[in-house]
Amino acid sequence: MKSEVLQKLARYCAYQERCVWEIQVKMGSFAILPEDQATYLDWLEDNNYLNQERFAKLFVRSKFNQKSWGRNKIKFELKRLQVKDPLIQKALEELKELPYDARLESMLIEKFNQVKDPNEWSKKQKCYQYALRKGFEPDLISLYIQQLN
Question: Does the keyword Cytoplasm apply (predicted)?
Answer without folding.
Answer: yes
